[in-house]
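To the wet lab folks,

You asked to see what we're planning to order before we commit. Fair enough. Below is the target structure as tokens, and below that is the sequence we designed to fit it. If anything looks off to you, flag it before the synthesis order goes out.
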């Protein structure tokens, strides 16, 4: 009986429906979250505005929306909110934006009365700042490097131009993506106000910055401009000193003042410019960009360091001083630069990055220890006229090295072994380029070999002569 009743009811329903009858589709309705924005004067919105909307359809569903700024040209979207950056005319401070949105239902019918909102806008001037942690220190040699950041409440994309000025010089336009800028004098031996070469993110820019002061105080200024012509307040750097080049050799010390003074005494017959890298705060924050520009001005370098690890205060990277220098030194050597390095390591020092740059392949990681004392110094290899030198006290934990295949050993240690230590005995080697000596590397700190100070000074002078410095 139940089955017969169901069939009867279905037949009644079919009879009651005319096959030609169609239900009329009703268009959807659209609403914005705000019906109006009643703001005037300084209370107007900035040009970056977030809007939301929704649609309803009594006989179907809303599948999307169209938005327009003139009620004629429409763009299809499926989202119900978005952040807009509305344009202002060049040089115009305020405007009113007409915003329309209409729903589209599942049968492609559109709302015949789009939702509308008039949006009162006022342009906001952009802002620009030097990044304080990158600003130059009180004293800088040849190169100044810094980074900066600009922003705009109307959207960072609304910033159209950026400008840099040194002291009383002219404003120079710089690229908006020039996040890291280096300045260095066109003539490194200049004195007084001159032009500076400019590098953006390590790339040379043929433009020049006027007003740069060599061997004097400098202050930098930054400003940006947005699409409406509004300028930021200029940001001002701290005052800093920039020294110029005087000699053809650069002496770089990564050790304390007492040790540095010992090397200065040993180099008393040489002329050089000097850089103090004994503390992380005195070292470049942007190593490759800054250090490369500095050393490219010199025919040769003298570098003393030790096994101390430094931490870059900007990016928090920790490494040996020579590790920070290595990428720049590799490019420097490739361009016929020369360097004399005296340093030291511990058995746990990671010299992987150094073996590609200097004539040192590896050091011993053996247990025990190699030592040198007053009776066991370092002696020249196949150079009878070069002096042998001894320390005036015991040096423990010496790190002789295996030279690279292209290296020529220069000095070896008369090692005293303890605790079963095994390893090489070379402590000094050189590398040639084009038939000329380009690098001399010692894995001992030569200032410690002062039992005979005359012989000690003669060793350093012989090495500089070998380099042609």
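Sequence we intend to order:
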């Amino acid at each position: 009986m139940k089955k017969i009743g169901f069939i009867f009811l279905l037949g009644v329903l079919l009879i009651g429906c005319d096959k030609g009858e169609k239900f009329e589709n009703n268009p959807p309705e659209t609403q914005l979250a705000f019906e109006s924005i009643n703001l005037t004067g300084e209370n107007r919105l900035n040009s970056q505005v977030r809007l939301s909307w929704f649609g309803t359809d009594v006989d179907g569903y809303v599948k999307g929306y169209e938005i327009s700024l003139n009620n004629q040209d429409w763009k299809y979207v499926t989202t119900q909110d978005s952040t807009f950056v509305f344009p202002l005319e060049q040089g115009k401070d305020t405007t009113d934006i007409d915003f329309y949105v209409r729903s589209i239902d599942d049968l492609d019918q559109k709302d015949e009365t789009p939702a509308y909102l008039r949006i009162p806008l006022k342009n906001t001037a952009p802002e620009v700042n030097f990044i304080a942690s990158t600003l130059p220190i009180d004293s800088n040699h040849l190169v100044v490097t810094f980074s900066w950041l600009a922003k705009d409440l109307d959207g960072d994309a609304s910033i159209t131009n950026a400008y840099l000025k040194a002291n009383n010089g002219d404003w120079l336009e710089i690229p908006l993506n020039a996040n890291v800028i280096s300045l260095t004098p066109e003539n490194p031996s200049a004195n007084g106000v001159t032009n500076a070469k400019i590098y953006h993110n390590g790339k040379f820019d043929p433009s020049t910055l006027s007003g740069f002061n060599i061997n004097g105080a400098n202050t930098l200024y930054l400003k940006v401009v947005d699409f409406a012509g509004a300028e930021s307040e200029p940001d001002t750097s701290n005052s800093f000193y920039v020294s110029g080049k005087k000699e053809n050799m650069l002496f770089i010390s990564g050790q304390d003042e007492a040790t540095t003074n010992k090397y200065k005494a040993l180099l008393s017959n040489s002329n050089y410019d000097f850089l103090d890298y004994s503390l992380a705060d005195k070292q470049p924050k942007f190593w490759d960009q800054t250090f490369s520009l500095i050393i490219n001005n010199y025919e040769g370098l003298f570098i003393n360091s030790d096994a101390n690890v430094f931490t870059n205060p900007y990016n928090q990277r920790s490494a040996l001083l020579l590790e920070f220098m290595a990428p720049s030194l590799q490019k420097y050597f490739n361009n016929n630069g020369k360097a004399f390095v005296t340093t030291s390591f511990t058995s746990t020092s990671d010299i992987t990055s150094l073996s590609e740059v200097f004539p040192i392949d590896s050091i011993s990681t053996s247990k025990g220890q190699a030592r040198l004392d007053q009776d066991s110094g370092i002696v020249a290899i196949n150079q009878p006229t070069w002096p042998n030198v001894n320390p005036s006290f015991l040096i423990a934990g010496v790190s002789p090295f295996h030279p690279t295949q292209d290296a020529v050993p220069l000095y070896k240690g008369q090692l005293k072994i303890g605790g079963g230590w095994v390893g090489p005995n070379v402590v000094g080697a050189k590398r040639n380029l084009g038939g000329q000596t380009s690098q001399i590397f010692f894995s001992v700190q030569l200032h410690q070999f002062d039992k005979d100070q005359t012989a000690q000074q003669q060793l350093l002078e012989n090495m500089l002569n070998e380099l042609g410095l």
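Structural context that might help your review: The chain has a mean pLDDT of 90. The helical segments are 2-15, 257-266, 287-295, 321-334, 453-467.

Thanks,
Computational group
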